[in-house]
UniProtKB/TrEMBL annotation:
This is E3 ubiquitin-protein ligase listerin. Residues 1057-1104 form the RING-type domain. It comes from the Eukaryota. It is an enzyme of class 2 (transferase). The keyword Cell cycle does not apply. It holds the Pfam family UBC_like. It comes from Exidia glandulosa HHB12029.
Amino acid sequence: MLKKELRNVSAVPLTEALGKLGRMDSAAFETAWNSIARITEEELGSDDVDRVHVLSLLKDLRARPELGALLAGFATTAIRTRKDIILEGLLEAFGEELMANDAVRSDLNGLVAQAEPPPSIGLLLAYLARHLDEKLWNTILSRADTSTLPQLLAFQAAHPAVNSLRPQGTELDALFQSMLDAVLSGTSPPDVTAQLLAKPEPFISPAALAAAEERIASCVSLTTDAVLRDPSVDVTPARSAIALLHARAWSGVRPKAFVLARLVPNSLPNVVIALDGEEERDAVLHTLHDLLLDTSVLATPAQILDTALRTTAGPQRVMNLLFPPASELERMRVEAARVPYPPSYAVVEPLAASTSTSAASSVSVAKKSVDSHGKTAYTRLLEALVPFLCTERSLARENPWIIAHVALLPSTLDVDTLAAYLLAPPDDGWHIRVADAITKPAGSLNDALADVLVHIVRNCATPREAVGLGKLLKRLLNGAEVNEAEAWTRAARSLERSTPLASHAILRTISSTALEPPLLARYRTELAATLAGVPPAKCNTEGLRLLRALNAAAPDASGDAALVPQQRAVFLMKTIERWIEDADEIDEEVESGMTELFVSLAPVLQSVPGKHWETVLDLIENGLESTDMGEEDELLSLARTLRLLASVIELAASTKMLRQEYWALREKKIMALVLRLLEAQGSGDKDSAARAACKELLISLAAHIPSASLDPDTLSKTVHLLASNNVAVLQAAYPFLQQAAAKRTEYLVIESAASTLTVEATAAEDGVRTPAFDEPVAPKIELPVELLALVQLQLEVELDDGADGELLSTWQSMLFAWMLIFDCFVDASAKVKAGFVEQLRDLDLVELYFAPNVLGLLGVMHSGGGGSSARKSFKLDVWAIEEFFLSLYDPRTTLSPRLLSAHLFFRALESTPTLIRGWFLKSKDRQLHTAVSAYISSYFSPPLIATALQPLRALPSDSELKADGWALRVGGGGSEALLSYTVDEQSLEVALRLPPEWPLKGAEVREVRKVGGIPENRWRAWTFGLAQNAAGDGGVLEGLRNFRKNVAGHFDGQVECAICYCIISVTDQSLPTKPCRTCKNRFHASCLYKWFKSSHASTCPLCRSDIL
């Protein structure tokens, strides 16, 4: 009973009770104490004891002097019986008391040293806490495993003194390595390993620690390198490794971790890597330098630069470590400049034309590796360097050599900003000093920018360098004076043979300005005179060199300056004619150069008749016949031919001699060749800048194609122009395609109207004539399948201002194609419109493509529902949706596509209301019904009603609806048309009202007045037909015309009653339907009744024959 109660008793009352008992009766106390000691000893030895409660009880009896002997006895018994867990508890609770007992301490020392069976880890740690011993610590380490390691780490945290101990060997190294492997492989959480790495000295050897650092650094480095090149790489190992950085901040790991966190978003969520010291920042910059030069890295130069700036290293440090030195950049620039342009690039940049005399042309250039955006390592460097120097302008000013690299980059905001800063307007006389220095032996001008520019000019050896030089000079010469342009012309003249590309760049830049220095005009004449003396045998060598120089010096076409005087131009043309006649073979480049030259010569010779015009037109015709839009290397010759043709057409329009004697004779054939090129499909790839430029030139010439050259199939053959990714091509092509659409519609209208051919009766051999018969020969009324293919796209991606170019291109091609479809409805007859509508309905284009895409773009398809896809519909309050000017279409913003979509929906409701109404009624989405109905009634119905009734107001007074007794007016607040017909001073009138939901809701017909003689069922059929026709694709005007035909047809052929001389009886509103079989006159029944009654006879009042 005592044992049971002792388990539940609180130590505090027991201590108080023992104290009172001892004061009252020492013998009783001794008996009680012995009983408690015996029971406690038994409890500690049993297997089911609540040891925590017993130890707590003993702790509370600590004040009793008898406890020491009791504890010693307990410890001795536990040592003898190997109750390690009891000893562990006793040592933790009463370690000082037990270790003070020599006998107990001696027994404990013997137990700890015992090998078999070994003491528990907990007992050893409890002993170690009272007796710090390195040998014992190593014994503990040798027995540790993954289950006991957390116990050791907890012991380390509770007893900091253990940190002074060191492993004698590699007791824990193998375990640590296996744990590290598990963490890095992602199969184990990093918590325990991180704890171990926080203070590893007591646990693992220095060698194992160094190996771990190397392993972690390698893991982070390898994973970072891999994921920067392949986004599918698993970053778990690096994430786990970096998690260990919180435990031990190794400088060898942090730089790579910093790069990973910055360049691979979401790779290390909620992890902040802070660099410590200049060494780590430099390590990051070195890494970023390598990544910038590596084209296999997915990170963009902008991302790399941003990461470099976030290291907080100074600008000069970033400049020195992120980017190569100037000498290395110059080597890369020279190498990059040797890469030839595509053959067609000279279409948009004349200085890019290849030159066989270039020193670089014979050098084999190895193909450079490019990144995922098609950029070389050199381009990547510049795309980081230029923005960096835009913000660090002092560094830019200290390094003017950068301008040579900027010249090779395409124009961007940063490039233009940096160029404007470095090429700031120089002081007076600067241009002359630089130009004079170019003509003299090498020497410094003590002006960093001037020295760099002179170096660029003197070393201009490739087309890329020539293009770059042209860009620099264009900015430098902006605002220059005539005398400064004269100095540059002098420099270009001196470079003509030594550095021809630099000379051409200078000449083209000066010619593009309005300066026109006198020396330039003299130089042109000098070149023309020299060229005129070149014999046919040298046309491909000396002639080509001079052609290039003269074309470079040619004045801008928009200016008033002439290339050469007229007489000099005639001599020059005669020389070229001799080349054509006498040369064995003229190179293609020479022919192309001649074509470019003729563009400048044509205005000079426009009033001079002669064989030279035949030569020019022959060159144009041959150029158009021999070129193919699909061949990239032929685009330059084609572009020059088209520019020459445009010049000739413009000159012929203002010069009678040229127009009548030359152009009129060749126009039809040449323009047919232009049409053939327009019909060519091309390569099927995206338009390059050169091909887009050629298409624009072709399309600009399309306006001059004679209408007779177009046929009904022209639209089918040229609609591929709408597939261009270049909006300028689309805008230029649309008017021509609109004309082709009108041609097709006109053909279908005429052919469908004349679709029934009457075949004359023919005589058979037996002399019997066969009866005449009608054979229907109707054209197939349909829109071109090539056009419909462009709109059969389901674009589920929402268009926003961040949409990529390919998506924008797809949207704009589709929208332009729908515009052309609705253009085919313009001036179409009812029969042709019906054919088009039937085709659109059969293909289900409105339901599948038009409504989802167009209304989706306007936000109507999404505005009715909730959820993440819901968004507000596009407001049209301030926009006039009845018109849209495609010349103002801007693909850089979503406003233009949305406004064009609104206009398209307006045209769809106007041209094909039955299709839109059918789609609307077919839809089962009630929210969509509400949204569409509200949108149409708010923005589309008012202008549609005005548009539908406008033709009624514009009808002339002699039109069929306003003549011969008919009258038409618009009333009802501008939403109602009233048509009336007067016969015999009696009028019928109907009102056709367009409701506010028009055209989703049909027209309403109201009977205002009705005359007699019209059966009720016929009248109902007429008014029902009027409502149906008005709501159909024919429109309101067509419905009213059909109603008039019905009424007029009813009264057509009706003669006046011979008795009352009226068509409609004033008595019963009937028509004269009672005929006389003899004289064929007709009478009202009521009039005959009166006649019979008054005459007392049933004879005809006219012929007196018996009517009955």
